[in-house]
Amino acid sequence: MISKRILSVILIPVMTFGLYACRATERYMRAQETAKAAEPLICHKDFGSYRLDPGWVEVGPESGDMDCYMYCKQEYRDSSERPYYLTVRCGADDYAPDKYRQFCNDQYQTLAGRCGEDKVIYDGTFIKDDNYGTVMVDYEYFDKGVHFYQWHVFGSLYHAVFELTVNDEDLARQDDIAEAVFTTVCSLRFE
Q1: 3-state secondary structure (DSSP) of residue 186
Q2: Pairing with 67, which of 45, 74, 161, 163 sits 20 to 30 Å away (CA)?
């Protein structure tokens, strides 16, 4: 018969090793999840592709519109009141290169008519990327207490609109969301 002392000498190291291996496996799984969360979200759509910073997830088309994609941070995925979210829409580009400025002025007038001129920030800044044949224009406006950032990107075939809706200014500022979304807009490559 095996004595209690011999049994404890054998079982204690075996149980300790088993617990250590289990904890190591748990740590490895958590590290894998963290690494996966740290990878950027690459979005491939019919019109092109763009990259979102780690932690963003697609939450489905807005209002069933299949040409509108909606994204939020992972921690707000199931929340009914998101502090901020991004929508991306794309359509055929009906604007000739010499008509972009007219579009921008028309868009400004539309936003100013809806929100009031004092609530629309637009400085007429154009960013042209000859390598990809794109022109980008940005707006910032306030409507009914909500802060919006809007970027229009024109390609030779498509016109994409990225719109960041901010319901919680403090949290959005803390998370530097506008800058993160601007990086996403700049990553757009039309197909």
Answers
A1: helix
A2: 74
Two tokens, residue 107: 């868009």
State residue 21's pLDDT score: 44
Q: What's the CA angle centered on 132, arms 45 and 185, to 5 degrees? A: 55
Question: Global pTM?
Answer: 0.71
Q: Is 8 helix (H, G, I), strand (E, B) or coil?
A: helix
Q: What are the tokens at 115?
A: 């929100």
Is residue 143 helix, strand or coil? strand
Please report, for the chain, the start and end positions of each structural domain, with discontinuous segments joined by +.
Answer: 1-37, 39-190
pLDDT digits (tens, 9 = 90+) for 15-62: 544 444 445 456 545 544 544 556 788 999 888 899 999 989 998 765
DSSP secondary structure of 76-125? GTT-SS-SEEEEEEEEE----GGGHHHHHHHHHHHHHHHH-GGGEE----
R_g of the chain, CA atoms, integer Å: 25
Taking every pair of Cα atoms in the chain, the longest distance, rounded to a whole number of angstroms, is: 95
Residue 23 half-sphere exposure, CB side, CA atoms within 13 Å? 6
